[in-house]
From TrEMBL:
Entry keyword annotation includes DNA damage: no
InterPro entries in alphabetical order: P-loop_NTPase, Pmev_kin_anim
Name this protein carries in UniProt: Phosphomevalonate kinase
Any GO molecular function: ATP binding
Native source organism of the sequence: Opisthorchis viverrini (Southeast Asian liver fluke)
Localization terms from the record: Cytoplasm, Cytosol
Chief place where the protein resides: cytoplasm
Alphabetized UniProt keyword annotations: ATP-binding, Cholesterol biosynthesis, Cholesterol metabolism, Cytoplasm, Kinase, Lipid biosynthesis, Lipid metabolism, Nucleotide-binding, Steroid biosynthesis, Steroid metabolism, Sterol biosynthesis, Sterol metabolism, Transferase
Pfam families (UniProt xref): P-mevalo_kinase
Length: 172
């Protein structure tokens, strides 16, 4: 959608630097860690504990690295110095929201909460795992209330066009 509107954009994936560094220090398959595979699940608890330890030292360590990586990729592929839109696809913690608010300024951020019912998530293959699915990495933003809009990502896409139109108007 953004490219159709002639807006330059970059997608920032916050989990990528976590998984990339963890894979390199433990000699693991990064592609498998980035997937929703049983391989990732086998290392998930330890990886989360390690990442939480790193974030206790610096809460923005991975958000900063993810943004720097994405902007570096953007600058080598685009004549523009910075993208019109920075899309963060996987914010999980209040510190993620704080980082982008500080870096970009709150008026320049559009916080979108995307949810699906538990029934739909189960139909998509999700299985609840205690101490993983109730951890900060999965529900750290449940109490966050500063959302600009909320989207239900259930089976139907009805209403999504209206939301996209509203977001496009705000970005332009």
């Amino acid at each position: 959608m953004l490219s159709k509107l002639a807006l330059s954009f970059v997608v920032v994936r916050l989990s990528h630097p976590i998984k990339s560094y963890y894979a390199s220090i433990h000699n693991l398959d990064l592609d498998a860690l980035l997937s929703s595979s049983p391989y990732k699940e086998a290392y998930r608890r330890e990886m989360v504990a390690w990442a939480e330890g790193q974030m206790k030292k610096d809460p923005y360590v991975f958000a900063r690295q993810a943004l720097e990586n994405s902007l570096a990729q953007f600058s080598c592929c685009s004549p523009a110095s910075t993208p019109d839109v920075i899309l963060v696809s996987d914010a999980r913690r209040p510190s993620d929201m704080d980082f982008f608010t500080e870096v970009c300024g709150r008026p320049n951020c559009i916080f979108i909460r995307i949810t699906a019912t538990e029934q739909v998530r189960i139909a998509r293959g999700w299985h609840y795992t205690e101490s993983i699915d109730d951890a900060t990495t999965e529900c750290g933003l449940d109490a966050f209330s500063d959302w600009d809009c909320r989207v239900e990502n259930n089976l139907s896409s009805d209403g999504h066009k209206e939301l996209l139109d509203q977001l496009t108007e705000r970005i332009y």
